[in-house]
Amino acid sequence: MPKMKTHSGAKKRFSLTGTGKVKFARPNKGHFLTTKNQGRKRKLRKGSYIAGKNANNIKTLLCK
């Protein structure tokens, strides 16, 4: 059976920490930033972690 390939889109959007958590950057930080207030943009700067079944699905896409 051949090896499973890493999902290219997931590879660009998610990363794994040393403890195995799935880290991602918050969306909505690309354009139309003048309409978003400063507090909202500040909160979008920080990344976040995915938990539960979604994390397991992403780890499968990343072949981990």
List keywords for this structure.
three-stranded antiparallel beta sheet; alpha+beta; 64 residues; Factor Xa Inhibitor; 3 strands
Characterise the protein shown here.
The protein has 64 residues and is an alpha+beta fold. It has one domain (8-61): Factor Xa Inhibitor, CATH 4.10.410.60. It contains three helices and three strands. It has a three-stranded antiparallel sheet. A hairpin with a 5-residue loop joins strand 1 and strand 2 (22-24). It is elongated. The model has no long low-confidence stretch (mean pLDDT 95).
Summarize the structure.
By secondary structure, this protein is of the alpha+beta class.
Q: Can you lay out the helices and strands and say which pair or pack?
A:
Layout: H1 8-13, E1 14-16, E2 22-24, H2 38-45, E3 48-50, H3 53-61
Antiparallel strand pairs: 1-2, 2-3
Secondary-structure element order, as H and E?
Answer: HEEHEH
Uncertain regions spanning at least 5 consecutive residues? none
| Largest beta sheet: strand ordering | 1-2-3
What is the overall pLDDT average? Answer: 95
Reported CATH architecture: Irregular
DSSP helix count?
3
Q: What overall geometry do the principal axes of the alpha carbons give?
A: elongated
What is the CA-atom radius of gyration, in angstroms? Answer: 15 Å
**CATH fold annotation:** Factor Xa Inhibitor
Question: What is the rounded distance between the termini?
Answer: 17 Å
